[in-house]
Design brief:
GO terms for molecular function: metallopeptidase activity. With 445 residues, this protein is of the alpha+beta class. The protein has nine helices and 17 strands. The protein has three domains: 218 residues, PmbA/TldD fold (2-Layer Sandwich); 110 residues, no CATH class; 104 residues, no CATH class. 23% of the residues lie in helices and 36% in strands. Helix 1 packs across helix 2 and helix 3 packs parallel to helix 4. It is globular.
Length: 445
């Protein structure tokens, strides 16, 4: 894998070559990653894997025609061929009135923010193996756990460099450390599985392996002896590890390409109250050590913390340059790597005022969902229907496990009926507290 300096130099050379070959404008992006993973199962070493990969991509423009091409071979001769092929492709491409680099006057000009994303420590495989053993042993030690799908530990490093022909050049690196375990409880057809994991930029921020393993085991045991639930309409409470998926659907409806294609369930919702006024959702790309932090977007524009939902109201779209031009708006610094689409970074919903217990206290009969199955969500209409696993809530208390259920509704209705608890924790790229959604349709087995 190239160093950051080499990566930035190589992308600069590619852009320079594209301009010399006749391109009116161009940008090049390099991405590289390396990781080591060690997994164990039933106390025995199962796999040690080391992977490295890198790719460089070129996007160029001839008038209003454009083409993109990429390669994993960093040899200068190969990159020369890449330029020739991309020029030939662009000349045959249809004209696109919205194609082009990001506006030059909006490029990031000052030094990128230091977000402290790269940990200098790199555990040896022996240390990863020890952590994998510890997390699996802790999970298997929970009474009722009968089998294991394994435990593991990993560390990795990723690097990104971006250069444009109109004046931007930047690069940054990030590291990750992870621990996980997945186990089964019960026997025969009554077996239930569950898992737990944690990832962090810095090894010192990683949760203790014993705690992760114990949580995996306790989750599996708690899900034993599930019952079926009658079909009805009732409140559904989403555990934070699955509640974030609801915000993912919101983000999917906000991205510029979906709005430009008129294929989003949020088309007529700009500036409207989608949630209760107590709900605010933040996208913060500049979070120090954030799992999705970045000092600039995929087109070289500056990034900043922004409320996607402010006091319940949808504030705007997530725009790369192409979709912004198509909509007659300005890009928002949300272009993904390479500028092909738009997306978010670290997203969280601000916590509410009630504890999870208080949030559920008045629920006579409802569901607490810990896992979702399938992809039954229509991004155009907002219709939502997914299989779910979790627990009954009876008289405000989480009780017996449930399975073979489907929860359904419409995302807009679900957003309006959503109430957050006060237990927000920053563990993932997208974080929410426990969420309650009233009035969902439940189809039982």
């Amino acid at each position: 894998m190239l160093s950051l300096e080499e990566a930035q130099s190589r992308t600069q050379d590619l852009v320079t070559a594209a301009r010399r070959a006749g391109a009116d404008a161009a940008d090049a992006v390099y991405s590289g990653n390396a990781s080591t993973t060690v997994s164990v199962r039933l106390g025995a070493l199962e796999d040690v894997e080391r992977s490295e990969g890198e790719e460089i991509g070129l996007r160029l423009f001839i008038g209003q025609r454009s083409a993109s091409i990429s390669a994993s071979d960093m040899n200068p001769q190969t990159l020369g061929t890449l330029v020739e092929r991309c020029i030939a492709m662009a000349r045959e491409a249809p004209e696109d009135p919205y194609a082009g680099l990001a506006p030059e006057d909006r490029l990031l000009r000052q030094p990128p923010a230091d977000l402290d994303l790269a940990d200098a420590s790199e555990p040896e495989p022996a240390a990863l193996r020890e952590r994998a053993h510890i997390v699996e042993e802790a999970a298997r030690a929970v009474s009722g756990v009968t089998n294991s799908e394994g435990g593991g530990a990993s560390n990795g490093r990723s690097q990104m460099a971006l250069v444009t022909s109109h004046g931007f050049a930047g690069a940054y690196a990030g590291t990750s450390h992870s621990t996980w375990a997945s186990v089964l409880a019960g026997t025969g057809a009554d077996m239930q599985r569950d898992h737990a994991s944690h990832s962090a930029r810095y090894l010192q921020d990683l949760e203790d392996a014993v705690a992760i393993g114990t949580r995996a085991g306790e989750r599996a045991v708690a899900s034993l002896n599930p019952v079926k639930v009658e079909s009805s309409v009732m409140p559904v409470v989403f555990d934070p590890r699955v509640g974030s998926s609801l915000i993912g659907h919101l983000v999917g409806g906000m991205v510029g390409p979906a709005i430009a294609r008129r294929s989003s369930f949020l088309l007529e919702s700009l500036g409207q109250a989608l949630f209760d006024s107590a709900v605010t959702i933040i996208d913060d790309p500049l979070r120090v050590r954030g799992l999705r932090s970045r000092p600039f977007d995929g087109e070289g524009l500056p990034v900043a913390s922004r409320a996607l939902i402010e006091q319940g109201v949808l504030t705007g779209w997530l725009l790369d340059s192409a979709s912004a031009r198509q909509l007659g708006l300005e890009p928002t610094g949300h272009a993904s790597r390479g500028g092909g689409s738009a997306g978010v970074s670290n997203v969280h919903m601000e916590p509410g005022s009630l504890s999870p217990a208080a949030l559920m206290a008045d629920i006579r009969r409802g569901l607490y969902v810990t896992s979702l199955i399938g992809m039954g969500v229509n991004g155009v209409t907002g219709d939502y229907s997914r299989g779910a696993v979790g627990f009954l809530i009876e008289d405000g208390v989480i009780g017996q496990a449930v399975s073979e259920i489907t929860i359904a509704g419409n995302l807009k209705d679900m957003f309006r009926a959503m109430t957050p608890a006060n237990d927000l924790a920053f563990r993932h790229g997208m974080n929410v507290p426990t969420l309650r959604v009233d009035g969902m349709t439940i189809a039982g087995g």
